Amino acid sequence: MDIQDIDDVTTRALTELAAAEDQTALEALRVKYIGRNGLLPELMQGLKAVPPADKPAMGQALNRFKVGVTAAVAERKTALAAVAQTAKAGAFDLSLPGRWPRRGRVHPITQLIDKTTEIFRRMGFTVADGPDIETEYYNFDALNTPADHVSRDLADTFYLPGGMLLRTQTSAVQARYMECHPPPVRIVCPGRCYRRDTTDATHSANFHQIEGLYVDEKVSLADLKSDLDHFARELMGPGVKSRFRTHFFPFTEPSVEVDFSCHMCGGKGCRVCKHSGWIEIMGAGMVDPNVFELAGYDPEAVTGYAFGMGIERLAMILFGIDDIRRLYENDARYLAQF
After folding, report:
1. What are the strands, taking DSSP E only, across the chain?
2. What is the spatial distance between Cα 274 and Cα 297, in angstroms, rounded to a whole number?
3. Is the peptide bond prior to 254 cis by the omega test (within 30 degrees of 0)?
4. 163: left (phi > 0), else alpha (psi -120 to 50), else beta?
5. What pLDDT is attached to residue 91?
6. Taking each helix axis from N to C terminus, what angle separates 55-90 and 23-34, rounded to the nearest 10 degrees?
7. Which pTM was predicted?
8. Domain 108-335: what homologous superfamily?
9. DSSP-derived pairing of the beta strands 278-287 and 252-261
10. Mean pLDDT (whole number) for 161-178
11. Residue 316 CB: number of other CB atoms within 10 A?
């Protein structure tokens, strides 16, 4: 084969490559001409028999063949890819129904926050909010919590530099709100709280609370009882009642623990209420006069009640969740049932 023959083969190869209809045909032609067992290696082997004087010109012809075919393969490959992309885009059928994304579900904690705040809104309460990073004053001092109280210990609270901390209760919002708003006050304060609790089935270092505050003239413990009775019926069913047990909190006097009758057994006793007929729900009481004085209120002119409950505890009771950690694992398969 002489130089003219090589040029002819080059022309024929470029013509065939330009006419390749798809990537498969193109790859077959590439293998045929410049593949490991193709025509080019065969011609290179034949270069040994060419007279020395003709080798430079023959080598140049083979190089033109290799370069030309390689460039033609790349060019045709790009062109075929562009044609395929255009065809794919043009194949979209506008008459087909759309594919709707799967809708998510509201998290159980959010469900309970929304439901409880809505119940209290209907009772005349408004929603107040405050910062998660709080000062010692609003988290403790303004709520009549003494310096030696156990909740102020380093083992119980996440302290930050500069006298700041992660709030341990949303009661701090009540202290802030009273400083800026004269009575009457009727608010609920949902939000996240933080304590140095070891995580187990019923405890978590972060959790949610909703606290309530009602301040006006002649507010009494009877108002607290009637409002919580109404809340219990709205949240857990028409037959649910509440009861008070004496307790102590620094910011209320008198203080009570509030139980609701079991919504599952009607107070007869079951596994949910541990066969007592009652479920502990929240702490509450009449606002301590010292808290009013620190907020700038006259404790001789106004009285009020406050209460606070854990949202996770409510969710576990109402939805039958046996481990608080399930609320934070974000397993969509588990949460989808609520």
Report:
1. 126-127, 133-135, 159-160, 164-166, 185-194, 206-216, 242-249, 252-261, 278-287, 303-310
2. 42
3. yes
4. left
5. 64
6. 170
7. 0.68
8. Bira Bifunctional Protein; Domain 2 (3.30.930.10)
9. antiparallel
10. 93
11. 21
Q: Which amino acid is at 303?
A: T
Task: Report the chain's mean pLDDT, rounded to a whole number.
Answer: 88
With left for phi above 0 and alpha for psi between -120 and 50, is residue 299 left, alpha or beta?
alpha
Q: What are the phi and psi torsion angles at 97 (to 5°)?
A: -65, 150
- Measured in residues, the chain has a length of 338
**One-letter amino acid of 326:** R
b vs e for 24-41, b when ≥16 Cβ sit within 10 Å of the residue's Cβ? eebeebbebbbeeeebbe
Q: Where are the domains of the chain?
A: 3-90, 108-335
Which is nearest to 231 in space by CA: 117, 330, 151? 117
Choose among 193, 217, 227: nearest CA to 292.
Answer: 217
Name the pairing type of β-strands 206-216 and 164-166: unpaired
CA-wise closest residue to 211 among 231, 234, 188 = 188
Provide long-range contacts, Cβ within 8 A and 24+ apart, for 18-26.
18/72, 18/76, 20/76, 20/80, 22/80, 23/77, 23/80, 23/81, 26/73, 26/76, 26/77, 26/80
Cα atoms in the Cβ-side hemisphere of radius 13 Å centred on 30? 15
